[in-house]
Amino acid sequence: MNEYFSRVSYSNNNFKSYLPGWKTDMGMIYILFGPPDDLEVYNDPLSRIYSQRWHYYRINKYFDFIDENGFGD
Fold it and tell me: Whole domain around residue 20: which residue ranges?
């Protein structure tokens, strides 16, 4: 149970936007699966699109988070 609350706290501190961190896409994935095993960051300054790919090798999944509007959400 401590791990769950630790992940919620981390999400609230690191993924908040106009929503609490635990309600964001990144926050929900972080709470469910913990920190990613690997992280790729893509930044295109011309289009102002920022994205991250989180890899979770133990479940053979990855999640893409794309910030198309530049507001961090």
Answer: 2-67
Question: Is residue 20 assigned to a domain?
Answer: yes
How many domains, the chain? 1
Q: What is the DSSP string of 56-69?
A: EGGGTEEEEEEESS
Contacts 24+ apart (CB under 8 A), 58-64: 59/33, 63/25, 63/29, 63/36
Over residues 25-54, the mean pLDDT reads: 92
Question: What pLDDT shows up at residue 58?
Answer: 96
The structure's pTM equals 0.86
